[in-house]
Amino acid sequence: MAGLRLEVFKFGTYLLFPIGIMYYFGTNLDNKFSVPGFWPKPEETNRIPHSREDIKAEYEKIVERQRALKERRAAEEARRAGAE
């Protein structure tokens, strides 16, 4: 008779262990596995310009940034050429 109780206990353990694991990992996931500050806030993300004026302003910023980078590279090359 002890063998039957042991088998019932083992069977119950085999059933309850996976159910308990699924219950533990399946409930309240946002609090258990979340990393605070992982996703950027909406004000920190890029915004797509929709109006014509916004697109033009963004284009001008890009062109100005490229122009400044080109000038910086030219100055760096001139400095290197002067040093040699």
From TrEMBL:
Q: Which UniProt keywords apply?
A: Coiled coil, Membrane, Mitochondrion, Transit peptide, Transmembrane, Transmembrane helix
Q: Which residues form a coiled coil?
A: 52-79
Topology in the membrane? Single-pass membrane protein
A biological process term (GO) from this entry: mitochondrial respiratory chain complex IV assembly
Where found? Membrane; Mitochondrion membrane
Q: Which GO terms describe its cellular component?
A: mitochondrial inner membrane
The entry lists its GO molecular-function terms as: unfolded protein binding
The UniProt entry's sequence similarity note says: Belongs to the PET100 family.
Protein name per the record: Related to cytochrome-c oxidase assembly protein
Q: Which organism is it from?
A: Cephalotrichum gorgonifer
